[in-house]
Amino acid sequence: MSLSQVAAGLDARDPLAGKRAEFELESQMSYLDGNSLGAPPRSVAARLDEVVRKQWAGRLIRSWDEGWWQAPERVGDRIAPLVGAAAGQLVVGDSTSVNLFKALVAAVRLNPYRPEILVDATTFPTDGYIAASAARLTGHEIRRVVPEEIPAVVSERTAAALINHVDYRSGLLHDLPSLTAGLHASGALAVWDLCHSAGAVPVGLDAAGVDLAVGCTYKFLNGGPGAPAFLYVPAKWQERFDQPLSGWAGHADPFGMTEGYASAPGIARARTGTPDILSMLALDAALDVWEGVTIEHVRTKGLALGGFFLRCLDELVPGTDVLTPRDHKRGNQISVRWPDAKRVMAAMTESGIIGDFRPPDVLRFGLASLYVRYADVLRAAEFLSGWPG
Amino acid sequence: MSLSQVAAGLDARDPLAGKRAEFELESQMSYLDGNSLGAPPRSVAARLDEVVRKQWAGRLIRSWDEGWWQAPERVGDRIAPLVGAAAGQLVVGDSTSVNLFKALVAAVRLNPYRPEILVDATTFPTDGYIAASAARLTGHEIRRVVPEEIPAVVSERTAAALINHVDYRSGLLHDLPSLTAGLHASGALAVWDLCHSAGAVPVGLDAAGVDLAVGCTYKFLNGGPGAPAFLYVPAKWQERFDQPLSGWAGHADPFGMTEGYASAPGIARARTGTPDILSMLALDAALDVWEGVTIEHVRTKGLALGGFFLRCLDELVPGTDVLTPRDHKRGNQISVRWPDAKRVMAAMTESGIIGDFRPPDVLRFGLASLYVRYADVLRAAEFLSGWPG
């Protein structure tokens, strides 16, 4: 059987195949960049129109009392099951970077008298930049270490560690339960960045006893470009969660407009300013595509897509330097090293196969199970096999 | 001539009268709450549809290189003339609270060895909460003082003062040039909150030599509920501007993804995370209503609306306790004390006259010149004169 026959068979039997129709994607588009910017669910444009015309124009200021003010917690509760969190522990708003700052300062306040923060040395840059800034303000030292070395490095000096669940460059999936347990054994807190795992792989935040986590919603959650991020504060820490961006929206009585700050009970204390409603409700609409789908479905297909892509590369482009682990220790992403990566990705994009390039020489292919077809990954491998062609 | 004849004449001669048609407002709606949430310009819904369908769906990740990434500075440059700033000094993004945090920490770093931050005691609460948090992290003392007393209180101990241009409760307009000059005379920096003045009154940031400023875009700039805020960093301070939310979007080479943080040149260093594009471009569309209008036009009408409203109150509800200065030391807002303020505002809202209530007993009426009619303020005064009716 040819690879294209195999792909056709896999697509025909794919239980998620019908989901692609819920996205605004042309049929000839092979979109393998959902790990950078998720594709738009069809429900988003109509919802935004409704929010502007019916809620904003029709109800004006009254809409704040008719669902807007509570949207950060309500939308958080919709994301919670995808990352293994019970309700009441996620809030949506601000950027990932801003939430990282809240989480890191709060973490060292939860775990005082320990001078050091460990930071994943393979992290997406913003995590390291924000950690350095937080440490400068709180007087902590930053120690950069690859996640695998954390168990050997963590000590009674460690207040917290900030780790990415999936390495944005290689696609390596770290062992969240085991690394979390290792940190806890030394009395350190585990702060996880879920940007590349939320909506792609099961996370199991509550089960692992994660202390704090942040994640973005514009990748595998399809919330839109720069959509608001989320912050997870588990019930066990909420009462002591003491965050530095203590704006009015996290106040116990925001409309009382009192002089002193008093944290709201529960997850609401993780809020900062007035919630950005247009983006928040676009994300809310985008989450409708999860109806009838669990994260396990998405993960199963993601691994199968990755496995098939690796098979295609092996057969069509033997010798390709695959950065991503071939076993299941990977996110829903395959990365390969390619000498003229920037040029080949520009040419692929021209031909309707969109992945992305990370300097200096990495091609990344995101496998967003809700709309990527087996035929798409075959097409990417075929393009590479014909390059330069 | 009756008041309604006067109102009709004023509306007939209003050079801004045609602007109301650019907003999605029913003709029977008297919307006097644009100082809390501006009304939606008609261009917003169509633009959002275009951003979702043509840019996000049609171009997918490529849109980041086709205008999205630079949007924070580009939209900032559209707001700049409204607040008296030359281009290249405003960036749009994050909430007002988040920008306040950036501005205050940056201010004390610009002016070290001074232990005190003065905070406007009449401020909107979030400013005080954020200032307290910033001071806790930087080791500064907060001293709360009403703006009028700042010249007497500022000293060589003062690093910076955070002042609201317009008092959100009373509508009092502070003298920005004079207070700024007074702070400078003691070597202190002036940080202004323009939430209630941007889009309502001339601000003159550059002319006054303001050091840093923040403002929101969802009031008189009509950007939408929770629309992204702006941060002003004048050219004189950009090279030394050292802000605490140093995320990847403010990096000199964000896509280089290097380990260490290096601030971008210019205003871009005030950025933090990935820009929130849906909200940003909704605001961009909303700013189209300023075509052919200057802030001076808006201010002239705002004062005239306020003057007429005061006349209506004097004639129809004599003895009303007006909190807002009757001279021109006010923003485009009139506030009155009213015993059962909460109840009367609920009833007014029911009848299609929307203002707002601030505890314990203040009624606020925003005078957004682009869509408020003289007939609207007369209607509000008539309602109060018939209460309880």
The tally of beta strands of chain A, per DSSP, is: 13
CATH homologous superfamily annotation of the largest domain in chain A: Type I PLP-dependent aspartate aminotransferase-like (Major domain)
- Name of the level-1 CATH class of the largest domain in chain A: Alpha Beta
Counting DSSP H or I runs of 4 or more residues, the number of helices of chain A is: 13
The CATH topology of the largest domain in chain A comes to Aspartate Aminotransferase, domain 2
**Spatial ordering of strands, largest sheet of chain A:** 2-8-7-6-5-3-4
Indicate the radius of gyration of chain A in whole angstroms.
21 Å
How confident overall, as mean pLDDT of chain A? Answer: 97
Number of domains of chain A: 2
Largest sheet of chain A: 7 strands, mixed
Alpha-beta content class of chain A: alpha/beta
Helix content of chain A: 25-40%
* Relative strand content of chain A: 5-15%
